[in-house]
Design brief:
- The relative contact order is 0.12.
- This protein is globular.
- The protein has two domains: 172 residues, Cyclin A, domain 1; 103 residues, Cyclin A, domain 1, CATH 1.10.472.
- The protein has a four-stranded antiparallel beta sheet, with no helix packed on it.
- The chain has 310 residues and is mainly alpha-helical.
- Strand 2 and strand 3 form a beta hairpin.
């Protein structure tokens, strides 16, 4: 475990806060308890992140601005999403893109299909495949802005069960971009959760020297497990990714630490209490059922009868 010394001239005051700072050496959030005294966060070394970006500025100007559309409870996309995710995974494996690109493509895909199916648009399976494929291509182009080699359409065309030409793919890309309203700088749940983890959510006083490394790594792995459990679920269609990521952090804290410092973390990111409570209930209920082995793969996409969703 690498401990940052939090050099004073590398501490920057967090926007709109009198007591909170972040360290430009490692990205950690610190709470000032007394003059020159800080309540420090600790993280696994792989989550150290040198940064000059204020985490609250990042939250307000990026994460919070990521477009979000709530799906209708009777939308047929709830029943189609399982198939669409598997197809996106197949395309991602075909083109061997990384996780960042895959999860951004998934964010685009959800955004597009929520709009189209909320409007009761009729989409053929061929059109749906092309939307999914182009979400992946657009995500790759967004990450690799200096891309010299465009996607090889023939890889898809050769394995497609449909009669598809390069023109069909390009034509659908235009439809994708229009439906996305050309807002490509979206942030996936994966992106936002990683940023929260880089900033730290466990305080030094909560772990003793003997258990620091193992307990913190276990907590970080547990947060990752919750993410993987819910990423394919109905939950991500009803709540914005920044709120879901924050609830994952809070549930992880509840499992491994007491609630003494929960308010300090919650104070940094100012979520509406009602939204937070409903999201917390849904995710906690979902995770408990997964841990008990009560959910099958089909259940991941169904809204439970005890749901608090309106």
């Amino acid at each position: 475990m690498q401990k940052c010394q939090h050099i004073t001239n590398k501490l920057s005051k967090i926007t709109l806060s009198d007591k909170y700072y972040f360290c430009q050496n490692c990205g950690s959030i610190l709470c000032q308890t007394k003059p020159n005294k800080y309540l420090k966060t600790v993280k696994p070394i792989e989550n150290e992140s040198r940064t000059e970006i204020d985490p609250i500025d990042l939250y307000n100007n990026a994460f919070k601005q990521t477009p979000f559309i709530k799906i209708k409870k009777d939308s047929i996309y709830l029943g189609k999403r399982a198939r669409d995710i598997k197809l996106l995974e197949k395309f991602n494996n075909l083109y061997q893109y990384n996780e960042d690109i895959f999860f951004l493509a998934l964010t685009y895909m959800d955004f597009i299909f929520k709009i189209l199916y909320n409007q009761n648009k009729k989409i053929t399976k061929k059109e749906e495949d092309l939307y999914i494929l182009n979400c992946l291509f657009i995500a790759e182009k967004f990450y690799d802005k200096d891309m010299k080699n465009p996607p090889n359409f023939q890889l898809y065309i050769k394995q497609s069960i449909y009669d598809v030409e390069s023109y069909d793919i390009k034509e659908n890309e235009v439809l994708c971009l229009k439906t996305l309203q050309y807002k490509l700088d979206q942030h996936s749940l994966y992106d936002i959760l990683k940023a929260y983890l880089y900033n730290g959510f466990i305080f030094e006083k909560e772990v003793d020297e003997n258990s620091t490394i193992s307990k913190i790594k276990i907590a970080y792995n547990y947060a990752d497990k919750i993410f993987k459990d819910i990423e394919n679920s109905y939950i991500v269609l009803f709540f914005p990714p920044d709120l879901i990521a924050f609830v994952i952090i809070q549930l992880t804290r509840r499992k491994f630490f007491d609630s003494k410092y929960d308010k300090k973390i919650k104070h940094i990111y100012n979520f509406k209490q009602d939204d937070y409570k409903i999201c917390l209930f849904e995710i906690n209920n979902f995770v408990e059922n997964v841990d008990k082995g009560l959910k099958t793969s089909d259940d991941y996409y169904k809204i439970p009868t005890n749901s608090k969703l309106e």
